[in-house]
Design a protein that fits this description.
Number of strands: 64
Shape: flat
Number of helices: 12
Structural class: mainly beta
Protein name: Paraquat-inducible protein B
Largest sheet: 7 strands, mixed
Helix content: 10-25%
Strand order of the largest sheet: 5-8-2-3-4-1-9
Radius of gyration: 53 Å
Mean pLDDT: 80
InterPro entries: Mce/MlaD (IPR003399), PqiA-PqiB_transport (IPR051800)
Subcellular location: Cell inner membrane
Number of domains: 7
Organism: Veronia pacifica
Low-confidence stretches: 227-241, 243-247, 349-354
Pfam families: MlaD
Length: 875
């Protein structure tokens, strides 16, 4: 080792004069602390004390102080006062809100509150109770306040019209009571206090700016608080303005025309009600005798809206009647013309119900029915009965009776149970009673020259040689007698009518005047009938049997139908043998027990009705069925002529779209025509539709072949199908072998032989079926086959004068040295054959072929034909 290697290197020492990083963190910490201290002092705001009577609803650290919904402070602590009579809170007011503090600053606790005047403090339900602040206007160094129990009246600080109302007492009014104009709230009471002499109350009222123009120097105010009730023999009259005024009090006012608008703090008297305010148009209403109004405050209504009230009822100047004074809303002045009618609405109670039932509580009232005319202030009121009596269009009927039978004025006049009028007057003569009936104008057409009037009410009945009849009316008519009538004869109203005691006696009186129309009816055998047996329609006797004798193999019965009922006999009338008993009961019409007549029980009777689609004659004579059921189920008889019955038998059905509409009844050979006569009946419901000329009937039989199966629904029993016609009624029809062909283009194809073509073979264009073969027959000279075919309407444009047709049925097999070639059409054409067609590519196109045109049918196609792609426009 050398000397140089043993010598150590001397280290270099440097002194760092920079500040340590630890001191930097210390300085930052001091800075943040200073900033936080500054922020805390700056945001601490102003500490104040607020005294409350109790601490209910206040929580330290949670209850806030708010101004117009904005949080401006918070409660820090809650303390007891030194005298223990109250509490005070230490609260911080945020710096930006310190300017709200002043000598007259007000505080109060806001919490949810419900009262008759309404609900307040709903926002406290969500955020909790809070302390509201009203800013002060006078600077002060005092930082101690006493909270108010209620929010201060701040109406003076709000915009709008401020007015003063003076009243003898406060009544039901309070702060928050609303002001109404035409029942619309437009302001409120915000303060009230006694006058300096303590004799009256002054209410401070604020009217919203948009409604301030309604108040002028002529405006009057009146109290509408609570309700007023007048109780008397005429009922209870209850008056209140609206629910709000009923609960919390209210004031209403009017707005008469004036050029001088109200100014702030104008003073007005407050009247106790509208009558004291003496507002409204004064009118006089003459009241009729028996008006029934005893309440001087009865309302006057127009379409359910109260427009005024009566204010007084007194004797007329001539002392001969009563005159009511009324006050009408000035806005309704347009209703008051010399033709306007005032009607007294009275309570009417009867077994039919209670009319104007509210009158029992509120009393009778008057309704207004305006008409154009000259302005007027004097009117005459009428009852509804008086109006009907004075109506010139109503029918006034005079009726004479032997006895009043409990009838008095207002007795109802009914027709078929519906009220059409009433008795307006009852007058007694020496030997009779004269009744004046008033029939409403819309029902007067029911009164005719031969109308018969009779009493309804109570249970009535009659028993004699013609039968037993008991009539039990509806319950309401048993205790409330009325007059009813029939409507028969000409439109002319007779001078006088007779009132019968019962409906039965009225009917008997009518029958004594009737004549008869005779009809002859034939039956296979004579039922249990005799001369005098009744003839009935809907269980009502309208005639009788006048003769019974034996005709040519049939019973011949002659009946007489009363002339009044001869119109019931129509082309659809059906007669049947009738006897027995029937009962009918309902709540509205009561109970009717009707045996028809004694003779219908002992010796039978005949009934009839109009039933469409039933065979009702034998030739030109009427036919008698053994019963109604037999008649309803028989229907209409028709006859078919056919070459063969082909599987039909008695009972085979006649069908339309799969629904049975009739059936075969008889099959008889017709030797002279080498055919068959088939008798059938169409059910009554369908006879009118199918028993008409042009109806098409055909025999449907099952068809099974290589090409498929058809009409399998006729596999067990063939049936007759039908398509309805639109001609007149007919009884004879031809029974066809094929279904009626639909419209289309009919053409004829001529071929050397039939090949595999048969009826139904399709005509194909580009392998798509466009028609089918209808018929195949030999030509006139037997030198060719004529094939009749039909082209569907939608494809008739494909058949041109030069269209080429060829047989595409089965297989085309060619065998040569090079092999075999097999050509086929569609699967359908292999099974059931087919005729193909093509249109030559020639321009211009030939015309569309006419109906009945003949074409040549080639045995096979030229290969060129199948390549044609001629464009053919559709129709």
């Amino acid at each position: 080792m050398s000397e140089n290697n043993n010598k150590a290197t001397k280290p270099k020492i440097k002194k760092d004069r920079a500040i340590s990083p630890l001191w930097l963190f210390t300085l930052i910490a001091f800075g943040l602390s200073g900033w936080m201290l500054y922020k805390t002092v700056n945001e601490a705001g102003q500490r104040i004390q607020i005294y409350f009577s109790n601490a209910q609803g206040i929580e330290a650290g949670r209850t806030t102080i708010r101004f117009n919904g904005l949080e401006v402070g918070i409660v820090r602590r809650i303390n007891l006062s030194e005298d223990l009579g109250s509490i005070f809170v230490d609260a911080d007011i945020y710096p930006e809100a310190i300017r709200l503090l002043g000598e007259d600053t007000a505080f109060w606790l806001v919490k949810p509150k419900a009262s008759l005047a309404g609900i307040s403090g709903l926002d406290a339900l969500v955020s909790g109770n809070y302390i509201a602040i009203k800013p002060g206007t006078v600077e002060t160094e005092n930082l101690t306040y006493t909270a108010a129990e209620e929010p201060p009246a701040d109406g003076l600080t709000q915009t709008g019209l401020h007015i003063k109302l003076t009243s003898n007492d406060l009544g039901s009014l309070s702060e928050g009571s609303l002001l109404f104009y035409k029942k619309i709230p437009v302001g409120e009471v915000y303060d009230y206090r006694l006058t300096p002499d303590n004799q009256q109350v002054v209410l401070s009222v604020l009217i919203e700016p948009e409604y301030a123009g309604l108040v002028n120097e002529n405006t009057r105010f009146w109290n509408v608080s609570g309700f007023k009730a007048n109780i008397g023999v005429n009922g209870v009259d209850v008056d209140f303005h609206n629910v709000g005024a009923l609960l919390a009090g209210g004031i209403a006012f009017d707005s008469p025309e004036s050029d001088n608008a109200a100014n702030d703090f104008d003073k007005y008297p407050l009247y106790s009600d509208i009558n004291q305010a003496e507002r409204g148009l004064k009118i006089n209403i003459s009241l009729p005798e028996g008006h029934g109004i005893t309440n001087e405050q009865s309302p006057i209504l127009f379409k359910g809206l109260e427009i005024g009230r009566l204010s007084d009822i007194s004797l007329s100047p001539d002392k001969k009647g009563l005159v009511a004074t009324a006050s009408i809303d000035p806005a309704m002045d347009w209703l008051l013309s010399d033709k306007t009618r005032f009607i007294i609405e009275k309570t009417e109670l009867d077994f039919g119900g209670l009319k104007n039932a509210s009158n029992l509580i509120f009393g009778d009232f008057i309704t207004v029915h305006p008409e154009k005319g000259q302005s007027s202030r004097d009117f005459t009121a009428h009852t509804r009965k008086q109006l009907k009596i004075e109506d010139p269009d109503a029918a006034k009927i005079s009726v004479t009776a032997k006895n009043a039978w409990g009838i008095d004025e207002n007795t109802k006049v009914l027709h078929r149970g519906v009220q059409v009028g009433f008795v307006s007057n009852v007058e007694l003569f020496d030997d009779s009673v004269n009744l004046s009936l008033l029939i409403d104008k819309k029902y007067k057409h029911l009164i005719k020259s031969r109308s018969r009037f009779f009493m309804v009410g109570g249970i009535t009945g009659a028993a004699n040689e013609d039968g037993i009849e008991v009539i039990v009316p509806a319950v309401s008519q048993i205790a409330d007698p009325a007059i009813s009538f029939t409507s028969e004869g000409s439109k002319k109203i007779a001078d006088k009518y007779t009132l019968y005691k019962t409906e039965i006696s009225a009917r008997h009186a009518r029958n004594e005047e009737k004549g008869f129309q005779r009809y002859t009816i034939y039956a296979d055998s004579l039922p249990s009938l005799s001369v005098g047996s009744p003839v009935m329609h809907k269980n009502f006797t309208v005639g009788k049997v006048t003769d019974v004798r034996l005709g040519k193999g049939q019973a011949q019965i002659t009946v007489g139908i009363e002339n009044a009922y001869r119109h019931l006999i129509t082309v659809d009338t059906v007669f049947w043998n009738h006897s027995g008993l029937s009962l009918e009961a309902s709540i509205s019409n009561g109970l009717t027990v009707n045996t028809g007549s004694l003779k219908s029980l002992v010796s039978g009777g005949i009934a009839f009705d109009n039933i469409k689609g039933v065979e009702n004659r034998i030739g030109k004579q009427w036919k008698l069925y053994p019963s109604l059921k037999a008649a309803e189920h028989f229907g209409f008889e028709v006859t078919f002529t056919a070459a063969t019955a082909k599987g039909l038998s008695k009972g085979s059905k006649i069908r339309y779209q799969g629904i049975d509409v009739g059936e075969v009844t008889t099959l008889l050979p017709e030797f002279s025509k080498k055919g068959v006569n088939i008798k059938a009946r169409l059910y009554p419901t369908y006879a009118q539709t199918f028993a008409r000329e042009n109806s098409y009937f055909w025999l449907v039989s099952p068809e099974v072949s290589l090409s498929g199966a058809k009409n399998l629904d006729a596999l067990i029993t063939p049936y007759v199908a039908v398509e309805p016609g639109n001609g007149s009624r007919s009884k004879r029809f031809e029974l066809n072998n094929q279904e009626k062909q639909k419209s289309g283009l009919v053409i004829y194809l001529e071929s050397e032989d039939r090949s595999s073509i048969s009826v139904g073979t399709p005509l194909l264009f580009r392998d798509m079926e466009i028609g089918h073969v209808l018929n195949i027959e030999l030509g006139r000279f037997s030198d060719r086959i004529i094939i009749k075919a039909k082209i569907n309407d939608k494809y008739r444009h494909l058949i041109r004068e030069n269209t080429i047709f060829w047989n595409s049925s089965g297989l085309d097999v060619s065998i040569g040295l090079t092999g075999a070639e097999i050509k086929t059409g569609t699967v359908g054409s292999i099974i059931k054959g087919g005729i193909a067609l093509a249109i030559p590519e020639e321009t211009p196109l030939k015309k569309v072929a006419s109906n009945g045109r003949h074409f040549l049918l080639y045995k096979q196609a030229n290969p060129t034909w199948k390549k044609w792609r001629t464009a053919i426009p559709g129709f």
